[in-house]
Amino acid sequence: MIYTSKVESVIDVQKTWEELYQQQPIVMKMIENSFRKKRVAHAYILEGAKGTGKKAISLSFAKAYFCLEPEDGIRPCLMCNNCRRIDSGNHPDLHLIEPDGLSIKKGQIQELQEEFSKTGVESNRKLYIIEHADRMTTNAANSLLKFLEEPNSQTVALLITEQVHRMLDTIQSRCQSLSFKPLSANIVKNYLIKEKAVSGGLASIVSQVTNDLDEAYQMSQDEWFGQSRAIVLQLNEVLNTRPVDALFLIQDKWLPHFKEKAQLDLGLSLLLLLYRDLIQIQIGDEDNVVYTDQIDVLRQRALQTSSSRVSQQIAFILEAKKRLNTNMNPHLLMEQLVLKLQEG
Q1: Could you give the CA distance from residue 341 to residue 344 in angstroms, rounded to a whole number?
Q2: Contacts of 124 (CB under 8 A, 6+ apart)
Q3: Phi, psi for 38 (deg, rounded to 5)
Q4: The 3-state secondary structure of 31-77, one letter per residue
Q5: Do 185 and 208 form a contact (C-beta atoms < 8 A)?
Q6: Which of 13, 26, 112, 267 could cross-link to 258 by cystine, CB 3.0-4.6 Å?
Q7: What domains, with CATH codes, occur in the chain?
Q8: In whole angstroms, what is the distance from residue 310 CA to residue 337 CA?
Q9: 51 neighbors 218 (Cβ within 8 angstroms)
Q10: What is the pLDDT of residue 152?
């Protein structure tokens, strides 16, 4: 189906040009140059991992394309009638296609072609966004290919995908590719703190385990993740103060909480970050400590152990994460890890 719709998401897609520039400077520079030189291509593929800003940038592109009063002739003003209608999902010449069920079907592309054969409601300009473009059926992809082969000079296509390798080579060859890089931990951390009012300590940890803004915010609000952090801290305390109780804690709290393989891997990642914090403190780089609310305890612990021992313990955790992928019994894996961490 074809419709104009404001996307409901944890992430606010109404970001300013400057905010998007900070997240994806290379992509935004390429887009800006296209508008400045008046060489906007007829089709773009926005490809990259989930949560890297592809949807937000596609909407910002649309605003720049339709804006009535662009700043410097490029950046959308965000205030004109066109910019506001794009935010509300009511611009008649902007169309969004997303999977109908599991795939994008030929009928959806044909409906798009029929729509675009008409004169633009506001002007001759038209723009369409296809989300999850890799999910087009073969017939839909071939139908789109014909559309791309005979482009209208004022029609722009934005194809969004997380798996560009699944798209037809012939479609890729007719589009300009914009590759989105994974977001840095600092960008994720600052986003959570400044835009979502997440505490600095929690934001620091979350930003180390995901570079997906949407997932990061959900994780920061997830009670299960908060409990995960508490259990990891408790295990670390027991290992350092009451090592004889460590195996009991694994049986009583760790394994019942981290039930799935992905959950156990996350738990090991959170534990790994604690040991890496010790290294950061030992080398005098406290600015990069993740468990900021544990800094006093970590400082004391860093004085009581050697960097070589901490490095060995980090190696043990990395080995456990690797063995987890071999379908090793989780109970046995954690028991062996605890014993190794105790031995140091």
Answers
A1: 5
A2: 154
A3: 55, 45
A4: HHHHHHCCCCCCEEEEECCCCCCHHHHHHHHHHHHHCCCCECCCECC
A5: yes
A6: 267
A7: 2-179 (3.40.50.300), 222-343 (1.20.272.10)
A8: 14
A9: no
A10: 78
Give 104's DSSP letter: B
What phi and psi values does residue 310 have, to the nearest 5 degrees? -60, -40
Distance CA 184, CA 48 (A): 14
Task: State the pLDDT at residue 119.
Answer: 66
Q: What is the pLDDT of residues 306-335, one digit of tens each?
A: 999 999 999 999 999 999 989 899 999 999
Here the tokens at position 304 are: 């009581």
Closest CA to 45 of 110, 185, 119, 141: 141
Q: Find all residues with CB under 8 Å of 335, minimum gap 6, and list them.
A: 247, 250
pLDDT for res 162 = 96
Please enumerate in sequence order all residues whose Cβ is within 8 A of that of 297, keeping only pairs 6 or more positions apart, or say none. Answer: none
Answer for the pair 290, 205: CB distance below 8 angstroms, yes or no: yes
Contact between 249 and 234 under an 8 Å Cβ cutoff? The reply is yes
β-partners of residue 158 are 44, 129
Give the residue among 167, 124, 174 at the shortest CA–CA distance from 148. 174
Helix H or strand E segment including 156: strand 155-161
Q: Tokens for 41?
A: 């291509």
Q: Once rounded to an integer, what is the mean pLDDT over residues 198-214?
A: 93
Closest of 43, 69, 75, 62 to residue 5, by C-alpha: 62
**Which residue bears the tokens 């410097």?**
72
Neighbours of 7 (CB within 10 A): 14
Report how far apart the first and last C-alpha atoms of the chain are (Å, whole number): 60
Q: From residue 13, give the alpha-carbon distance in Å to each of 60, 175, 218, 316.
A: 9, 24, 16, 41
How many Å apart are CA 161 and CA 102, to the nearest integer?
14
